[in-house]
From TrEMBL:
Gene3D superfamilies xref list: P-loop containing nucleotide triphosphate hydrolases
Organism: Paenibacillus methanolicus
Residues making up the signal peptide according to the UniProt record: none
Protein name stated in the entry: ABC-2 type transport system ATP-binding protein
Pfam families in UniProt: ABC_tran (PF00005)
Classification via PANTHER family: ABC TRANSPORTER ATP-BINDING PROTEIN ALBC-RELATED (PTHR42939:SF1)
Record keywords, A-Z: ATP-binding, Nucleotide-binding, Transport
Span of domain ABC transporter: 10-233
Gene Ontology molecular function, alphabetical: ATP binding; ATP hydrolysis activity
Transferase keyword on record: no
Presence of the UniProt keyword ATP-binding in the record: yes
């Protein structure tokens, strides 16, 4: 049995993904440390969702090597990853409580006490039908489902998409408060750069399926002399 120890949660080497004639990822090389919150930034079509789906094990790369927690991914890795997709996968006829109990049934690592705590933090009523929730409330419920699992890797694809500032603020506070420093790695794809950047340890800028920039948030702000939001404007001008 391997006893290899690595400080990296994720290692990608030459990862490419093609859909017929279209290249979604054109050769990704990355090393992401354990215990960090990583911002995954880029315009629509830059490859963010494709990269997260590959890391979640939902799709396979066309070529390249992937290592998660020091090992090549296999079926067991899915049990160590919480993935929140951009699409809404909730059942409208369920209540909030029924939704969480339904999701809990799929995972041995589910933390019911954390789910209950997050329900209060997110200001959701467990008796409400999902169909009656606003888009912001549904986004909060999806995040509860992801953060209630005790896993080393959390992948969040556009958790703020189309929701109001109040809900965005609640979600950001919950991500930061529930983050297990040193134990958990969170990769968060977002267009809400100005509100999200205070929580990022490292930042990846993708462009046309490749890494445009990758560094710590502090180093990027220091190098460019401006905020991450302003760096975005310069990178994608």
């Amino acid at each position: 049995m391997s006893t290899e120890v690595t400080e990296n949660m994720i290692e990608l080497s030459g990862v490419q993904k093609r859909y017929l004639l279209k290249a979604a990822l054109t050769g990704i090389d990355l090393q992401i440390k354990k215990g960090s919150i990583v911002g995954l930034l880029g315009p629509n079509g830059s490859g963010k969702s494709t990269l997260l789906k590959i890391l979640a094990g939902l799709i396979h790369p066309t070529s390249g090597a992937i290592r998660i927690a020091g090992r090549a991914p296999d079926a067991s890795h899915k049990k160590q990853i919480a993935y929140l997709p951009e699409i809404d996968h909730l059942y409208g006829w369920m209540t909030v409580d029924e939704t969480l109990r339904f999701i809990a049934g799929f995972y041995d690592d589910w933390q019911a006490d954390k789910a209950a705590e997050l329900l209060m933090t997110m200001d959701l009523d467990g008796r409400q039908k999902v169909r009656n929730l606003s888009k912001g409330m549904r986004a909060r419920l999806k995040l509860i489902a992801a953060l209630s699992r005790n896993v080393p890797l959390v992948l969040l694809d556009e958790p703020f998409s189309g929701i109001d500032p109040s809900s965005r603020a609640k979600i950001i506070r919950s991500i930061v408060s529930e983050f297990q420093t040193g134990e958990q790695t969170i990769i968060l794809s977002t267009h809400s750069v100005s509100e999200s950047e205070p929580m990022f340890d490292e930042v990846i800028f993708l462009h046309h399926g490749s890494v445009k920039l990758f560094d710590t948030a502090d180093n990027l702000r220091s190098s460019y002399g401006c905020s991450l939001e302003n760096i975005w404007e310069k990178v994608y001008a």
